[in-house]
Amino acid sequence: MRYQQIIFDVDDTIIDFAATEDFALHSLFNAHHWPLSPELQRQYHSYNQGLWRRLEQGEITYEELSEMTFHDFIKKNLGLEIDGMKAMDEYRSYFGEAHQLLPGVEDTLKFAKKQGYKLTILSNGEKFM
């Protein structure tokens, strides 16, 4: 039996999630002239992953995560009071601009399409506009 459809995940299958996230974070910090050292970036990733674990465990809501991510991190590490939701919206807009493909993805998709496969992309990532 020949498969008729191939389903791809987006993050780290089609796009380089780490590169996209790095672009968005640097863009946000640069736009506000906030310093971003490699150590502060590591702290952000650790903090952000902790928030996502809390969301998965039902301790916080998605809206709380969205508000807290930059509000609390910037306040703690830079001593600045910011609108967390506004910063998150801005971050997400940068994230949507980057979508760097992983090596070989474009050729793979073109080949699969030429072979007659129906191509589908799914993601469990965030939906934002």
UniProtKB/TrEMBL annotation:
A Pfam family: Hydrolase
Highest taxon above the source species: Bacteria
SUPFAM superfamilies: HAD-like (SSF56784)
Protein name: Haloacid dehalogenase-like hydrolase
